[in-house]
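CORE FACILITY INTAKE
Project code: CF-77B
Contact: R.S. (postdoc)
Sample description: multi-component assembly, three entities in total
Requested service: structural model of the whole complex
Turnaround: standard
Below are the sequence entries exactly as provided by the requester. Do not edit them.
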Amino acid sequence: MTAILSETSVSASPGNARVVFNCLKRDKLAFAAAIFLLILTIATLAGPPLIGDTAAKLGLRQRNLPPFSFDHGWLFFLGADTLGRPILARLIVGAQNTLGIALAAVVFSMLTGGVLGLIAGYSERWYSQVIQRVADIIMSFPSLLLALIVLYTLGPSISNLIIVLALTRIPIYLRTTRAEVLELRERMFVSAAKSMGAKPLRIVVRHIAPMVLPTLLTIAAIDFATVILAESSLSFLGLGIQPPEFTWGAMVANGRGYLANAWWISFWPGLAILLTTLSLNLLSSWARTMADPQQRWRLQSLRKASR
Amino acid sequence: MLSFIGRRASHSIISVMGLLALVFFLTRLTGDPSSLFLPLDSTAEARAAFAKLHGFDQPVYWQFLQYLRDLLSLDFGESVRQNRSAMAVALEAFPQTLKLAVVAMLLSTALALVVGSLAASRPGSLFDRVVTLVSLSGASAPDFWVAIVGILIFAVSFELLPTSGTGSYLHWILPIFVLMLRPFGLLVQVVRGAMLGALASPYIKTARAKGLRRQQIIFGHALRNSLLPVITVAGDLTSGLINGAVIVETVFGWPGIGKLMIDAIIQRDFAVVQSTILVTATAIFILNICIDLLYAVLDPRIRY
Amino acid sequence: MKTRHSIAVIAMALMASTSGIAHGQEASKEIKIVLPEQPANLEPCGTIITNVGQILSQNVTEALTVIDAKTGLPQPKLATEWARIDDMTWRIKLRPGVKFQDGTGMDAKAVAFSIKRMTGGALTCNNMAKFGDRTLEATPVDDLTLDIKSDRPEPILPTLLSVVMVISPNTPADKPVNDPVGTGPFKLTSFDTQTVTMNRFDGYWGEKPEIEKATYVWRSESSIRAAMVETGEADLTPSIAIQDATNPETDFSYLNSETTAMRVDMSKPPLNDLRIRKALNLAIDWEGLKALFGPDVKRASQMVVPGINGHDDSLQPWEYDPAKAVELVAEAKAAGVPVDTEIVLIGRNGIYPNGGEAMEAMAAMWQTAGLNVKLTMLDVADWIRYLQKPYPEERGATLLQMMHDNNKGDSAFTIPIFYRSTGQYSTVSDPAFDAEIDTALAASGEERTKDFKAIFTKARTDVVSDIPMFHMIGYTRVGKRLDWKPDITTNSEIPLAHIHMRD
């Protein structure tokens, strides 16, 4: 996730990181989003070792403990779930699976979709057609249904979950990449490279792929949100991640039956999903503005205006 | 133009056939329907008899050939659970989802165009920020969660709306609202982005210089030019709407095709899975062709 | 201007609609029941499926006998009396003057037709599962008498007959139907993707029910079903989750004939060691676990609920004794039992409310006791492979989450399946135990009861092939208009004739 962030920022401004940071600071929403994601990343990496087993430890006597009390220790500040486990601890531990699955799925689908898109866009051989038809097929396959079928076949393990989530997102990257390649390959620099005798592979890898990457990364940021939500929907249908493993999405799904009398069980993980995906969306839209020379002045003029 | 439609249609037919084959074999991999359809304590003989009755004892490729043969005579198979034609089951449910999807998409596109344009006209203003925050929050919340909270608040606490089901148009409000959240949230961003681009372009500056009114510039000129990306995204969101429909239909007891297809795969009612996919995929392909045609109408530079 | 106008329209519409809801509520004698699941079909041969039975049984279709929930004994319904005329044959006398909803008279021929349709094998019949591999042959003697012959001595045939729905002879014999015609007090009027409706049948042979019309709808979320009854959109929902049963005035609990348990695979080490199996029972904090299922569930010591012939009231369940459990594991370890072997705990998604949480909790408790238990949650289709023979070859030591529902009055629907070496779910293989079971099954009267009790005692104390958990409780929410309380049969039927309106 941090990788995506820094990559987008870099691509937005190849030159000065300081300028980027200043622009980010001027856009308060994007700045808040960046800080939230930073804290989240630190908590995800450093939190679980600190918390240890507490997140999995049963407390049947303190089931559905209400939030906002320090009586049972700070980990219980957000309340306890249906088995009396501290929600705060579970949020921190669950972040690893949630973000890990989403990141793996997004990276996997971006790479696969990107590569296939490059091939489909640059080559005019028969397999270009095949790739496109297969993408059409996956696009017209309702992704929840596809996910259910694959999970029924392979079994609902974490790696299969990643495969399924990635599979349903591949066509997005594929189609975007292909569209960009179709446009790019008519451009001057490609023709120039071609006339200088560069091999197709070299042209694609050295000249075209770097131009497509920023677009893919922006989509990836939004997709990250989509994947977290899709994983949550799978949990709602009973085929998401299986206990004892858990994600935020599974926590929301399992707590939904208690919304009327113990709202906190599904509220906090829901909020965590919302804040994370919101932050990613905000940052990605900020990065788009930064990357667009026509729009960039807005972020810079904001600075002038506020002075 | 006609040749374009013909080419697209032939591509679509190839894709639908591929999809059907894929669905057929994938579903067969998910396990034996007899273990789910028959009660747990039935005998092995009863299971064998069931498999024979529905042809599940045949090799899969043979079942597929028979399925293809039946397709030629427009026989889409029997629903094992519902004792009637699987296609009839799918076609009965489809309009219910279509109604939801059309209303939700039209509303969210229209709203997004207005709200997104207004936000883009004053970038960085309070209104712009609130719009961004609210629309993205809507798109970032798990939909089943919003749906249940919505019912608890509006139907149970305030008793303003019915909890679920169909009937009066009040029954539409919550499902449409939940279904709109994600398309609306994303579309607002797309409209806003496209409008910002359009407003910064030279011809708008010209229009401004000519002294045209703000409203005229935004809704008359810039909007028209930013419609293309909006339509692309709206089209993709419509294809993806079936996922949202699954959740909405499950929570609100709306008898649509999304819930039907999920129930069918959970219960391994293969013929129904195949029929629902056939219906939704066809709808999506038709939608895509329509979108391409719409492009041509909106942008005279595009010729097929 | 325009906005104000539309707000006014919405407000008016809202008022109109709320008054509309109130109106629907007062229209008396009509009730709406909300079920958890859509019935896939309404084939009368599938009434043992909960969502079919809750609609059809006792309302549209009736059987020859009906099981008394308290004694577990068959009572007359369409049959008035029965007698065993030889080892294989029962003679049944039918109730005179009964008509099907299509006007046809109910006679011995119609009953023979119903039995033949069910057992003939021309259509898939779920209810046949209760008969196992028995074959029945019905021969009319006269208009209102028939003989039913079985292929082996059948001491509890009248009990079995409670799952044979008697339907009109005009029903297709080789095709499943969605519009069953029976002898019940209600006639099915419509079945579509949103509702099932039925109206009172005026030609009913028995007492006229108070309800005139019933509509069935379905919603999968428990909280929404509960909300529908609370807001008056529906009058009754047969099952809500315990956390939704918050209003003592409308929410009633009932013992629902379901018993939850874990099955221990006795063939695999370390589970083939009796000490380990005992330790598994002792290591669970039963009182704490109970919190997941509600204060009203009953701790189980055997696989059938009280009221079933063979249930032993005096049999005590295992207590929570973690120290003893640890001690037994250590003892087994010292004796060379591979206690560190991974034991896979196989749970099933959605098997009963809070079932997943229960598995997480039990796995954690067994780990505390020093056993290497790993939890896997499976979907039904995969789970069944472990439930039924032949078990997967590659399986290791497994504990399987299961739930057994015996609402048919007799332990014969339980014991052979679980404890006989040939039993479909059994991991026991003990010829002496088999012989005991066979003797019990052939016995009748008090002898039968006594034998069943002895078998349950042995299973609990000496064999320990399962870990009985709880006799489960269901919760219903009943709207204030209705006077009705659930009982042990509610999971299989909701007789509208028993529902009265409050005035």
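Facility notes:
- Residues 2-26 of chain C form the longest helix (25 residues).
- The longest strand of chain C covers residues 251-264.
Invoice: internal transfer
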